[in-house]
Amino acid sequence: DPKIVGVPKIHIPAFDNIPFLNKTFNNWSFMEVFGIVLVFILYHILYRTVWGLRLRSVGRFPMAAETAGINVTKMKYEVMIISGIIGGLAGAHLSLGYTQMFTENMTNGRGFMGVAAMYFGGMNPVIAWIGCLLFGFTDTVGNRLQGYGWPSQFVLMLPYIITILVVSISLWRHTASEKKLKSSVIPAKKVKKGGIV
Predict the structure, then answer these.
(1) Are residues 18 and 112 in the same domain?
(2) In terms of pLDDT, which residue wins out, 141 or 53?
(3) 129 lies in a domain?
(4) Which residues neighbour 52 within 8 Å (Cβ) at sequence distance 6 or greater?
(5) What is the pTM of this model?
(6) Domain extent at residue 76
(7) Residue 163: which of 184, 142, 186, 187 has the closest Cα?
(8) Which residue among 26, 76, 186, 190 is the one 20 to 30 A from 37 at the CA level?
(9) Cβ(16)–Cβ(26) below 8 Å
């Protein structure tokens, strides 16, 4: 629909005569640039501010955070509102910055990939962003393979195969770190007054 106004594109005239830079960096949606900047803003907030420290403590040990005087319920609502706003911006980009149209099921399972990227990144937005880049790369490769005559069924399942692999790796990393943490804890029966037996 020509009446639909899309998200503004960023065009750098200096790149017009340089084919690689023109194709790679020109005509990006404003939302794409904002999304990349937002990754590093979130990283700074999580790891360089008091609020971020409190948020991570609520995520890891809510009971301990509450004991320390942090309002866990309030912080959970704050984060839900912020994540809802970011999710809404992502949806706006998909319909106005990426395609400038709306069709039913246009997300095509991207929400599940976003959840997988979250598990892959853990509490690190930069690593989660790398996971998103991996899923995007897989989606693009799938479209190219379909152009070369690969079966559409294989192309459609390729991103989900990568999603399963990423989630499996994330669970393995989490399990390994939990085992390492448990092995470093000294059993209570081996601890006596004055030192370790």
Answers:
(1) no
(2) 53
(3) yes
(4) 45, 46
(5) 0.73
(6) 1-106
(7) 142
(8) 76
(9) yes
